[in-house]
Amino acid sequence: MAKFTRSNQPRYSTGQKRRPSRGRRTRPSKNTMTKRRTTVLVVAGIIVALVFCWVFGKGCGGNQQAKENEELREYTTAANKLITRSAAVGTQFDALRNGIEEVSRDDVSRKLTQMVEDCKGTAKEAKEMKVSGKATGLQPLLELTFDLRTAGVDKYRASILDVLENKDTEKAVAMMGEGLMDLVVGDESLQRFRDSLEAKLKAANLSFEKVADSAYVPNMDEACTAAVVSYIQRLSGSETGDKVHGVAIAGVTTSPARADRTESGVSILPLSTTFTVKVTVENQGNQVEEDIPVVITLEIDPEGTPQKETQKITRLKAGETAALVFEDLKPATGSDKVNILKIKAGPVKDEKKIDNNETELRFIMRSE
């Protein structure tokens, strides 16, 4: 077998020491450079995306605001069209109501029926409107306005036809009063709608969009009972030529006012060193009345001397009311004494209906 032996020949060297391998500088590899470049691109992309989102988001907000403002403008235009149509009916209604003596019964019925149908149509279209997001809280006011106008004109129609057919006048007075009051509330509802919508238009720099105006009963006093009675009696007088005389007690209040009531219905007033009674009288005829006596009497049960005061209303036109204040009465105090307050207005000359000329109030005044 052959043997191998290490050679004893000397090794040669350049004489320079060799550096440790771990201390050497090496050039980055191609893969490392690629990774670094990718990282830079990713960071730059993120920054660009953030800037883009900020700019785009801001732009979207502006676009959304512009869209909402445009919807508000379109809503206002649509609402104005309905209000303008409703106002036209209101003009017809006011003209007919104030000139009804010159119109035949059949024409009154026909015209008012058409007005009711027009009001119904407007109310229906209002409920079908496309409502702007900024006007969502206002839409109920607009719908309420048109609903009240429909009901008000319809009640007036029914009541005036009863008057023209000489039917129950008292019922006609009540129904006409309700109808006119519906119209008054409808006018107020529309005014609130107008004010609120114009504020929103101004905030959106759309103040050039003016909301239409409209009123069915410009004077609220025309809806009160006295005015309705006078109106109806005027119509009755114009047809028959009759003069109607009549006054009535429209209201009684005391000071102090009632604080409670007993089981039997007797009012309980708090103790007071002063006592006043306010009496409101209404002229329910169609003639001017003068020197209308108003007498108030206070009796005490079970005993006591009656106290009596008299005042006069100098002049009272048809449909007007007047109030008188009585201050010299002295009611008894204590739960064992019932005060009986009797008030009487008129009657005036030639007055036929006198069942509404008197009223009575029973009360006790608490003692200390």
Keywords:
18% strand; 368 residues; 2 domains; 6-stranded mixed beta sheet; single chain; Immunoglobulin-like; 5 helices
Question: Could you explain how this protein is built, in words?
Answer:
The protein is built from 5 helices and 9 strands. The protein folds into 2 domains: 181 residues; 119 residues, Sandwich (Immunoglobulin-like). 27% of the residues are buried. It starts with 29 loop residues before the first helix and ends with a strand. The radius of gyration is 44 Å and the shape is elongated. With 368 residues, it is α+β, with helices and mostly antiparallel strands. The strands form 2 sheets. The chain has a 6-stranded mixed beta sheet, with no helix packed on it. 46% of the residues lie in helices and 18% in strands. The N terminus is likely disordered.
Task: Show the helix and strand layout.
Elements: H1 30-98, H2 105-127, H3 139-164, H4 169-203, H5 225-240, E1 247-255, E2 260-261, E3 267-269, E4 276-283, E5 289-301, E6 307-316, E7 321-326, E8 338-345, E9 358-365
Parallel strand pairs: 3-9
Antiparallel strand pairs: 1-4, 2-3, 4-7, 5-6, 5-8, 8-9
Helix pairs in contact: 1-2, 2-3, 3-4, 4-5
Average of per-residue pLDDT values: 83
- The rough form would be described as elongated
Q: What is the number of helical segments per DSSP (H or I, 4+ residues)?
A: 5
Rg is: 44 Å
Helix/strand order: HHHHHEEEEEEEEE
- Order of strands side by side in the largest beta sheet? 2-3-9-8-5-6
